[in-house]
Amino acid sequence: MDWGMENRLSRVIRPDDGHCFFMPIDHGYFLGPTRCLERPGQTIESLLPFVDALFCTRGVLRSAIGPLDSKPIILRVSGCTSIAGKDLSNEEITTSIEDIIRLNASAVGVSVFIGSSYERQTLLNLAEMVNECENYGIPVMAVTAVGKELKKRDARYLSMSCRICAELGARVVKTYWCENFEKVVNGCPVPVVIAGGPKCKTEAEVFDFIYDGMQKGAIGINLGRNVWQNPNPVAMAKALNAIVHRDATAKEAYELFNETKNNK
């Protein structure tokens, strides 16, 4: 692996344990001012000690995140659709390689929509971004998005999606947890990171699926709404960090969550 590629990956994936906690705050690119993310800079301020990297757009990066003490940045570079439109999968690349370099991104993220009307277009977005970023040693994270079709989140579909992303050159794949998650990880030759998806009903539910996914081979998590939309976001971030970086069980994470919440 080239020095620059390895160096950038080491910024977002901790070399000491090979694990990572990414925090996405890119939801506004298709949802607008998401609840609890109206002012993203304020939302993340108390959570930064517990995360390894932020996943965001260039607009939020420039307007809401200070450049002097920032966590490493995974830059969202696909978009051009909204929740109000007909099809979330109709994405294009939004950010040039020059801007990626100018912003000193440690990695970039591109969504793909396997099985959608725009499957080929989004896969081409990924392939073309890999072609450009490999020239500069910048890792590409593929995001296996499903839009509004949540029923697609099963092992067979996600395994296929992740493998295709890896085949096209993604260095990391972000995907959803599912039953038999080991099938997804075992079929993907690059590291897999667990996506959060819609906010869960209980904290215990989050800890359970994250612990299961880590035990079955994921290297980390990419959770946003299940952290910063929680009434106790710091306690949530601290507990998730314990699963990712301290091998805590779901039960231990829940105990840490309650302890932190009660001592705030």
Helix content: 40-55%
Please write the string of helix (H) and strand (E) elements: HEHHEHEEEHEHEHEHEHEHHH
Give the number of helices.
12
In the CATH scheme, the class would be: Alpha Beta
- How much beta, percentage-wise? 15-25%
Mind telling me the C-alpha Rg?
A: 17 Å
* CATH homologous superfamily grouping: Aldolase class I
Give a topology summary.
Layout: H1 3-12, E1 20-24, H2 28-31, H3 40-44, E2 53-56, H4 58-64, E3 73-76, E4 78-79, E5 92-93, H5 97-102, E6 107-112, H6 119-134, E7 140-144, H7 155-167, E8 172-176, H8 181-186, E9 192-195, H9 203-215, E10 220-222, H10 225-228, H11 233-246, H12 250-262
Parallel strand pairs: 1-2, 1-10, 2-3, 3-6, 6-7, 7-8, 8-9, 9-10
Antiparallel strand pairs: 4-5
Helix pairs in contact: 9-11, 9-12, 11-12
